[in-house]
Amino acid sequence: MKCPYCSFEESKVVDSRSADDGERIRRRRECLKCGKRFTTYEIIENIPLYVVKRDKSREVFDRNKLTAGILRACEKRPVSVEQVEEMVTDIELTAQNGFEREITAEQIGELVMERLKKVDEVSYVRFASVYRQFKDINTFMEELNKLLTEKK
User: Fold this and answer.
1) Domain range for residue 27?
2) 144 belongs to a structural domain
3) 20 to 30 Å CA-CA from 133: which of 11, 54, 95, 104?
4) Residue 148: pLDDT band with limits 50, 70, 90
């Protein structure tokens, strides 16, 4: 860290404290050349995650949008808000840890369906019908048959 007084590039940390409810670390430093003290702050660099949509446009990942979609599929079903929050957190962590800076909407949809299938089959079918854009009753029945086959 460059000293603001003499521009020497080496200093030692004298004191470290958490600041802004743990969002930053405040460090008191002492220049090894001139001996003067100064303060620096260390923060986590947030790299936004982008969702690549079907039309190839990009938008920043929105946790609230994902939550709303899952809640819509789970409407009037025995799925708690806590279960939905767990799914959303798990999907968000998977997306941030498994991909660079971009994830496709299709990948998010698959992650949602994996989790919904384990929690509530009716919610899964509801979500799948919108996500997979079923064209007619036959494609809908194919998905239901897959689900029944997996249960056996």
Assistant:
1) 11-43
2) yes
3) 95
4) confident
